Amino acid sequence: MKKIQKTKKGFTLVEMVLVIAIIVILAAILVIGITKYINAAKQAQASLSMHDSSIGEVNSAISANTDLNLGTTI
Predict the structure, then answer these.
(1) How far apart are CA 69 and CA 50, in angstroms?
(2) What is the pLDDT of residue 19?
(3) Could you read off the pLDDT of 32-60 as tens digits, one per residue?
(4) What does the CA dihedral 20, 23, 24, 27 come to, rounded to 10 degrees?
(5) What Rg, from alpha-carbon coordinates, does the chain have?
(6) I need a labelling partner for 73 at 20 to 30 A (CA). Which of 8, 26, 27, 64 fits?
(7) Residues 68 and 58: beta-carbon distance below 8 Å
(8) How many Å apart are CA 9 and CA 58, to the nearest integer?
(9) Burial of 73 (0-12, 13-18, 19+ CB in 10 A)
């Protein structure tokens, strides 16, 4: 009698679900990392905007030859 060997072709459902779960976990880690970088970039942009604004006020006061009101008393 001849033995018929079954060849395994394709993936099982468990293997596919496992691969999809791993991909979802990696995607979640990636999204968290990207979100941190986006928040850091927004914070740096806001800080730079405030810095540029204060330089503009100083330049305006210098060109108008007036004193700056820095909110401090001497």
Answers:
(1) 16
(2) 96
(3) 999 999 999 999 888 888 887 778 777 77
(4) -160
(5) 31
(6) 64
(7) yes
(8) 74
(9) exposed
